[in-house]
Amino acid sequence: MSHYSPPAGGDRETGGNVEEFGYKQAMQRGTGRFASFAVAFAFVSIATGIFTTYGAVLNSSGPAGIWTWPIVIIGQLAVAFIFGSLAARIPVTGYSYQWMSRLANPVLGWIIGWISFTFLAIVVVAVDYTIASTVMPVLLGYEGTSLNAWVITGVVILCQAVLVAFSTKWTERVNNFAVTAELIGMIALVLLLLGVGFVAKELNVANLFSTGAVPSEGYLSFGTLTAAGPWMLGFLLGAFTIVGFESAANLAEETKDPARVVPRAMWQAVLASGVLGFLFLVAVTLLAGDPVELAKSGTPVADVISRVLGPVVGTGLLVLVVIAIFACGMVILMTGVRLVWAMSRDRRFPGWQALSQVSPRFGTPLKATVFMLVVGELILAIFSTRTDALFGLFAAATLLPAIIYTGTVVMYVVKRKTLPPSKGFDLGRWEIPVIVVALVWLVFELLLFRDASFVEPWIYVLIMLALGAAYLAYLLATKGVKGLAMPDMHSIDAALTADTTGTGAGTGPGITGDESAEGRHRR
Question: Between 300-345 and 366-383, two packed helices, what is the crossing angle to 10 degrees?
Fold first, then answer.
């Protein structure tokens, strides 16, 4: 295998030059438009989210809980637009960590970066656990236990890590295939379910408005101080699923024309996932039969597919679901690796000396990949004996992005008048309405987690934050706040102009002589 040679510089004409942000180009720019969309769409993965949480929503909100989905889509689409506006201004690996560090405060940036790392480490386990606990038992006809779920999930994470570690190109190829299969498979699944259900006269419209085993009295209540109402809990279905679209921004340094491609990939992924996911939810709910009985199953969606479509077609479609979930976990792992690498590049992550390296042979952050693999396996081991492991994992993986999104949107609101110029996407006159929708949605979403059933996820989050706080205290004690300053942003055009006029490239905080901003930052 030939050795990898990182390219020099970036694409200045398309706003892709990382030297503008104080770094050297370390990885190959090979991610195109569809691949960027596929990364965002695979992370969202409606197959994964719905298979994981539909049963929980049946128990907490009944079938009528699916009507919260469109509201979530509107809220998350507003968040995606704001993230796109930031990605078009600072298209650098690290997304919220980079934006918060550069536009607000490096300490706040580190905190949001650590929370993002915690989210990615937990959600990759939650997603892969779905394969072992809710799909494979139906697909292969065996009884799922906590032990075999542990083993299967561990093997799945290992396979994903091997792909991410050894080839970004092959990781994207596998993901592109999986996303194409998921799009085609989910469309086919919706059409087949509705078609067969109509012919067999099994469609039950009343299910769409049924509360199932949940009492109808007080259903629309907002609940109490420590308990969310049944209707509110239904929002967890969309809140867990429609996240991770920002993963496209975390591959900005590997994307061609990232300032234009990444924002589009994010909002398109949310919109496509939202529309297709809701159609799938409606189809499954129409064919749920007795929703009270279905809620008792650990694999409700798979049960409906197998019952309605029969074992042959049902099995084929479940295989596509497994492929989609595998791709989702793989993209999450790759996103986590990029974040760890980005924070390590700035000497702000434990073990940064090793984790900041890019393999000269494979062109990937190999050691950061091994690190994420080990963390994922450790988290899996902690949950291995828990019969309710899936709920604990998905609850924590829903809470964390809500915190990240809220922090980032608030930062955008505060700094929107002083943002750097956009290189490809701007909210324009829609900025205020988008901000209002995003903030209202995020405040409402965070209120869901006052429910007493989320005590353990809050504990998991607080433990990880405590670990992060300890390391942050170490960084502040050894470097001080000024030691956490980010590499300077500067204008490549201004530097080149100064150089050609004979005044030297040392005008401002950019490149001075043969020395890069990254080199100065390291001293």
Answer: 140
Alpha helices in 416-516 (DSSP H): 431-448, 455-479, 492-500
CA distance 281 to 518: 49
Q: Cβ distance 29 to 272 under 8 Å? A: no
Q: Residue 389: what pLDDT?
A: 65
Helices and strands, counts by H and E, the chain: 20, 0
- Write out the two tokens for 33: 């438009």
On whether the CB atoms of residues 359 and 129 are closer than 8 A, the answer is no
Residues 387, 148: Cα–Cα separation, whole Å: 12
Say if residue 273 is exposed, middle or buried (CB neighbours under 10 Å; 0-12, 13-18, 19+). buried
pLDDT at 339: 95
> CA 291, CA 59: separation in Å to the nearest integer?
9
Question: DSSP states of 257-275 as a string?
Answer: SHHHHHHHHHHHHHHHHHH
In sequence order, what are the residues at sequence separation of 6 or more whose Cβ sits closer than 8 angstroms to the Cβ of residue 209? 63, 64
Report how far residue 151's alpha carbon sits from residue 159's, in angstroms, rounded to the nearest whole number: 13
Beta bridge partners of 512: 515
Q: Let me know: does 505 contact 498? Beta carbons within 8 Å.
A: yes
The whole-angstrom separation of Cα 106 and Cα 140 is: 49
- Residue 201's φ and ψ, nearest 5 degrees, are 55, 45
What residue has token string 């994420």?
372
Q: With H, G, I as helix, E, B as strand and everything else as coil, classify residue 515.
A: strand
What is the distance between the alpha carbons of residues 309 and 256, in angstroms, rounded to a whole number?
42
How many Cα atoms are found within 13 Å in the side-chain-facing hemisphere of 21? 26
CA dihedral of residues 354, 358, 364, 365 (deg, nearest 10): 20
- Which among 521, 37, 114 is positioned nearest to 343, based on CA atoms? 114
Q: pLDDT tens digits for 228-286?
A: 888 898 998 998 889 989 999 989 999 999 999 999 999 999 999 999 999 999 999 99
CA 61: distance to chain centroid?
25
Residues 285-313 pLDDT 10s: 999 999 999 998 878 988 898 889 888 87
pLDDT of residue 501: 45
What single letter denotes the amino acid at residue 484?
L
Nearest to 30 by CA among 261, 244, 245: 261
- What is residue 85's predicted lDDT score, i.e. its pLDDT? 95
What global pTM score does this model have? Answer: 0.86
Q: Which two tokens stand for residue 240?
A: 């867990």
Low-confidence ranges of the chain (pLDDT < 70): 1-16, 385-391, 489-523
- Please give the pLDDT value at position 390: 63
The contacts of residue 15 (CB under 8 Å, 6+ apart) are 88, 91, 257, 258, 259, 260, 423, 424
Contact 268, 37 (CB under 8 A): yes
